[in-house]
Amino acid sequence: MESIAVWQGATLGGIVAWILISSYLNVTRKLRSFLQPWVAHHVIAGTPLIFQIQKYQHWFFDALFSGLSCVVSVPFYTAFLPLLFWSGHGRLARQMTLLMAFCDYLGNTIKDMVSAPRPSSPPVRRITATKDEENNALEYGLPSSHTLNTVCLSGYLLHYVLSYIQYEDVSMKFVGLALVCLFVGLIGLGRIYLGMHSLIDIIGGLGIGLVILAFWLTVHEHVDNFIVSGQNVTSFWAALSILLFFAYPTPELPTPSFENHTAFNGVAFGIVSGIQQTYHQFHHEAVARIFTPQLTISNFVGRMLVGIPTILLVKSCSKALAKWILPGVSNTLGVPIKSTNYIPTLNGNGKKSDESKQSGYIQRLFFSQQGSFDVDTGIRFIQYAGLAWSVVDLVPSLFSHLSL
Prior knowledge:
Blueprint: H1 2-25, H2 27-45, H3 47-54, H4 59-71, H5 74-86, H6 90-114, H7 131-137, H8 145-165, H9 170-193, H10 199-229, H11 233-247, H12 257-283, H13 297-333, E1 337-338, H14 362-366, E2 373-374, H15 376-401
Parallel strand pairs: 1-2
InterPro entries: PAP2/HPO, PAP2/HPO_sf
Membrane topology: Multi-pass membrane protein
Domain Phosphatidic acid phosphatase type 2/haloperoxidase: 93-217
């Protein structure tokens, strides 16, 4: 118990020290002044390559690469991961959820720290087939989040499958690795074809993704053991989530990146707190898994029909509850608050100002120039934490009562 408290305190203390030191030394601005011109030069220099790839413009490639981008997007994983939990593969689901949150935070941190541009459009042809892609286009370029996430999540999935099935055949491992490499290559090529990224962004996403994957494969068992059987798990993760908000760098201009991180930060907290409470009931290694007599396809379909509406309802209720509670708590504590999206009455004229149209950086997100707290961060965090908690706690309880 004492050793656990020591490493938890050291972890949180280290983050606090980094926040103070980086703020005092203005680390973000110094790193940006060094990296941004170099990256911007390579973005411009890589424009002819984008033109060369886009010469092969065709409706089939438009549909193919747009579809692949949707398959590896954050909204897709947000929808896919609950199904993975309900399929009985709880260990894989929680590891991929936390890895996704880790990738999302580090990727967006680097994006906003460097604040490097995407390829200029025009002259580059940019295809944004979905609302999510339109939001992605508002973010900075380096690294490519799609490439980074694909490297990490497909690489970890391959590791899990090979470990779970215990393949000893080297040829099968080679085939699996080749498929992952092909998938990653198509994603990277597609991001350039769609005009969303330059080659330097893809290389950056690939390199950073490989580093994160190697690190995660080293620590994932320790992380999982801590979540399912550790001490002070929920309180530690709550403190970690709050500190990560303040450790986030200030971008050169506002972007949606911080909003995305806030959502997945909430998801990670909801998953961790829910698993900690219900591991031995619903998420241990002996639970029924899909494609077995204990969990047939029809039962799994029933789980989806019950689970998906339930988590969407919980998300909506969590958001409404947060919008009601947080302003009252802030007023009781005498903390001035503002809202850029969720509570228009907290803005002076009920409209978004040009300056606060996008929340994505810590100073304006938490404290505006008038010293007011942007309550949207707390609301977004709570609504996604509630959604994630329902995935691993409330919904499995319903499955148990309904014999699903």
